[in-house]
Design brief:
Blueprint lengths: L2 E10 L17 E10 L3 E5 L5 H6 L7 H5 L2 E2 L6 H4 L5 E5 L5 H4 L10 E3 L1 H9 L2 H6 L12 E3 L5 E2 L10 E3 L6 E5 L8 E7 L2 E7 L24 H17 L4 E4 L12
Parallel strand pairs: 3-5, 5-6, 6-7, 12-13
Antiparallel strand pairs: 1-2, 1-4, 2-3, 8-9, 9-10, 10-11, 11-12
Bound molecules: zinc ion.
Length: 265
């Protein structure tokens, strides 16, 4: 059983109409959510890192600076991960994928044992420079600590979760399970957590806003920014089914607004 805390580490601020139909051009601040897992034996682990000052350093010059234009980021000083989490107490880090809003604090952290999907890691490392920018990957933010691979952990199908297929058992006791949720990126991952309040499923960027699970499509151009559109839809269908079959599970996407439609600025 885990104790889990959600933290908002910056916001992505696309024009509202890129995320919700009819929302207008005003920026819609979407939180960038990370999870701090407290395991009774293994200690504190972080799932994704949010934006960090390193993102601004890495995008100072063109062409990397373009990444600030595509989805304008915002990080208030008090939102910095290092202000919210005692990072020197962390035992490790897990990453859902390698986009800048998920690895943007990595260079600002101590070098941590880091768990990733080997297949995704090898893929994004090999991307030529312009292709990596085109797919929103900044190698300056990639992890430098000891890497561990989810594929090397024991995998299984959990009863009642057959729809998610095989998952990897991060701590060996079923408290944290890693499931592939492909589409947003090819090796995009979700993290299932068993908490005292019931299961919590961090689904990363499998969707941005919950109405996508009801079949509401993302407006263009956001719906085009997926690496595999067919896999993205299949993942959405899976999560919609999971929500129907297991209503007690809390689904939490990285960027979903905390309560309903929120406009700022
Ligand atoms: Zn992403």
């Amino acid at each position: 059983m885990l104790r889990v805390q959600e933290r908002i580490v910056g916001h992505a601020c696309p024009p509202g109409r890129f995320v919700r139909r009819g929302a207008g051009w005003r920026p819609l601040p979407l939180p960038v959510r990370v999870f701090v897992l407290d395991h009774p034996e293994h200690g504190k682990f972080l799932w994704d890192t949010g934006y960090g000052p390193a993102f601004w350093r890495a995008t100072r010059n063109f062409p990397a600076r373009l990444l600030r234009w595509v989805i304008p980021p915002r990080l208030l000083p008090e939102e910095q991960l290092t202000r919210q989490v005692q990072v020197e107490q962390l035992a490790g880090l897990g990453l859902s994928h390698f986009h800048p809003d998920h690895v943007g604090s990595v260079p600002d952290l101590p070098r941590l044992p880091t768990w990733v999907l080997r297949a995704e890691w090898q893929r994004v490392q090999k991307l030529p420079y312009f292709q990596s920018l085109h797919t929103a990957h900044l190698k300056a933010l990639f992890p430098t600590g000891d890497l561990h691979y989810f594929e090397d952990l024991e995998s299984r199908v959990w009863p009642g979760l057959e729809i998610l297929g095989r998952g990897w058992d991060w701590f060996g006791d079923g408290s944290a399970r890693i499931f592939p949720l492909p589409g947003h990126t090819r090796g995009h991952l979700g993290l299932w957590m068993e908490t005292g309040d019931g299961p919590l499923f961090a689904v990363g960027d499998a969707y941005y806003v919950p109405e996508q699970l009801d079949g509401v499509p993302l407006p263009a151009p956001t719906r085009w920014i997926v690496e595999d559109a067919r896999a993205y839809q299949a993942t959405l269908d899976k999560l919609a089914q999971l929500r129907r079959r297991r209503p007690e599970v809390t689904l939490r996407a990285c960027h979903e607004p905390v309560s309903g439609l929120q406009h700022h600025g």
